[in-house]
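Problem: given the chain below (131 residues), write out its structure.
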Amino acid sequence: MQVTATDAGGRQLRAQLGDALRKAVRDRDTVAAATIRTAMAAIDNAEAVSMASRSVPSANSAHVAGAAAGLGAAEVARRVLSEDEATAIVRAEMSERLQAADQYAKAGSAERAARLRAQAEVLRTVLSGPA
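Solution.
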């Protein structure tokens, strides 16, 4: 999926996550910092281009099998996610934490459930926008 340069491409959410991360680090809130880093990594992973869709020119290298010819020949532009796609990823991260918290609570591990609910709350706060 290619998006035009005029589309912010999920940049607003990424900026909100970055601001929240800086605040969490400044406040020494390790739970929030780790949760926000995980959400940012999930967005980064979604922007990665799959190996199947890459077209890398082949070269005959005596030293490295499958090497690409030329400087930067193997470089591929990352996908650009829309704001809705990035938000959906963070919502999915939040949902996964809440589902896991319910499972931990049913299994009698209240401490782990509380930790996951706190992480989901961090993501909910970021999604609700700047205060």
